[in-house]
Amino acid sequence: MSEIFGTLFVYLAYPFVRYALVVGVLIALCSSLLGVTLVLKRFSFIGDGLSHVAFGAMAIAAVLNVSNEMLLVLPITVICAVLLLRTGQNAKIKGDAAIAMISVGALAIGYLLMNLFSTSTNLSGDVCSTLFGSTSILTLTKAEVWLCAVLSVLVVAMFVFFYNKIFSVTFDESFARATGMNAGAYNLIIAVIIAVIIVLAMNLVGSLLISALIIFPALSAMRVFKSFRAVTICSATLSVVCALLGMLISVLAGTPVGSTIVAADMAAFGIFYLIGLGGTK
Amino acid sequence: MALITCENLKLGYESMVVIDDLSFSVNKGDYLCIVGENGSGKSTLMKTLLGLHSPISGSISMDEGLVQQEIGYLPQQTVVQKDFPATVWEIVLSGCQSRCGMRPFYNKTERKLAMKNIVRMGLCELKKRCYRDLSGGQQQRVLLARALSATQTVLLLDEPVSGLDPKVTADMYSLISDLNKKDGITIIMISHDINSAIKYASHILHIGDKIFFGTKDEYINNNIGFTGENAL
Ligand SMILES: Nc1ncnc2c1ncn2[C@@H]1O[C@H](COP(=O)(O)OP(=O)(O)OP(=O)(O)O)[C@@H](O)[C@H]1O
Ligand SMILES: [Mg+2]
Fold it and tell me: According to the model, what pLDDT value does residue B81 have?
């Protein structure tokens, strides 16, 4: 046991490991907040689609040799979030189909661009780390850490500020509209927050695993808790604990960060599922 | 003084017209029942009154004192999500949302109001319970309490008793009637139950091939809507 802690302290002496832990915890916290809304509003498709868009944007950033990729990926993803929301509300074009088109298209174009223009010698490694996260969390620069931190704090603040409005719009949108709320504006805010979260989470787990990071904690918490507030608090806590655990295990055992965190989230889901079963009896 | 006045309304979806040339008005303290066959456009009319849907032509004018924020609404089907984790308290409180404007949190007055409506609907024991674990009748009462949190003026109810057993239905009707008589809340209700409509309402709006609008007595004398019963 003490041996494990010894190794841990050795690792923690490196600043990049500490950065990774701080950023990881912040991202995990953000990504869990909108999980319930995403699941229940059927926005999870948008979440999935956006993560693929973010991958495409990442490829473009790599090709253009942008130094801080997030500065390019963030606006593209936010714009796509707004567009997807618009098409989703348009009854004539089937929302799901539009999302599927955009997301698969972004994946294909992204890979194509990387293949054609990339100067890197390790192409498949690059693609793999964009999709699955792998080591990228450990290579964050100080500037990226700050950007992540600022964005995370912003997301949490927005969520707290709009908490009651998000509840109303998620629970019953037509009632919210009928009583004079500007539901469209709040949907837009939710979509933008989701886009920011996805760009953030891409650093932690890569674009393919983002949905897991967003949805698993919420689903786990919904198994056990009965109120919106309790579910929100529980899923945030759960997400942070799982991310921390996943990162530590991955540092010690040398496993890929993203998939280790998601595995931890899945294990937590299993436990909460069993607790939920016991609770209803 | 009319609270809501509709003139020559034409309602429908895209090219399909559902209701044509509908005029009526609702005064403060009225209890208006909207009756008509399935698909005759009752819910469409209600959505138009709520501003969720826009009329093809014609006009709806609201009394100056009445703003959207003062309307309470009980939807036909509970379109709310089945798995939504929320307690009765959280849902009733969310009815106060329209009073908040940009303010992020509820204040004391709004909490008190929500509590009052929970008591009024007899939901005290259920306050901490999860909405999805309640029976249909209990859910309906929760949504009515939420609608009451949103309004002191007008309540629009789309088939509030569908799927409820006879006893709960009677309770629901007398609750609504009390709100109308004791609290002076204007009621606009869609119903398929013509007998109860006649028993409680002050005005009736019949939508269908023939449109009728008038007081309850006029309706009884006029005999529209009774064709079904006379045949029996
Ligand atoms: N979103 C929609 N798009 C197109 N047509 C619609 C839509 N909603 C309703 N309709 C049509 O409009 C007509 C009126 O529907 P509405 O829901 O207003 O009927 P209703 O009187 O409330 O019926 P019920 O008693 O079954 O509730 C129906 O013919 C229906 O098919
Ligand atoms: Mg209807």
Answer: 60
From ligand 1's centre to the CA of A52, what distance in Å?
38
Predicted complex ipTM exceeds 0.90: no
For residues A131 and A107, give the distance between their C-alpha atoms in angstroms, rounded to a whole number. 10
> Of the candidates B120, B150, B180, which is a domain's last residue?
B150
Place of tokens 């990442």: A58
B2-13 and B16-27 strand pairing: antiparallel
- Secondary structure class of A188 (helix, strand, coil): helix
Interface contact flag, A171 B85, Cβ < 8 Å: no
- B177 inside domain: yes
Q: pTM of the prediction?
A: 0.84
Q: Is the pLDDT of residue B10 over 50?
A: yes
- Cβ B110 vs Cβ B99: under 8 Å: yes
Q: Does B133 touch chain A (CB under 8 A)?
A: yes
Domain extent, residue B9, equals: 1-15+27-71+154-232
What is the architecture of the domain spanning A2-280?
Answer: Orthogonal Bundle (1.10)
How far does residue A179's CA lie from ligand 1's centre (Å)? 21
Confirm whether B77 is domain-assigned.
no
| Each residue's pLDDT tens digit, A31-50 | 899 888 888 776 666 777 88
| Mutation for testing the B interface, residue in A165, A172, A181, A233 having most B CBs under 10 Å | A172
Name B169's Cβ contacts closer than 8 Å, sequence gap at least 6: B161, B193, B196
For residues A34-71, b (16+ Cβ closer than 10 Å) or e, as one string?
Answer: bbbbbbbbebbbbbbbbbbbbbbbbbbbbeeeeeebbe
Q: How far apart are the C-alpha atoms of A192 and A200, rounded to whole Å?
A: 12
For residue B131, give the DSSP letter. Answer: G
Closest residue by Cα to atom 10, ligand 1, is: B13
Q: Which pLDDT tens digit goes with each residue over B99-121?
A: 887 888 999 999 999 999 999 88
Residues 6 or more apart whose CB falls under 8 angstroms from that of B229 comprise B194
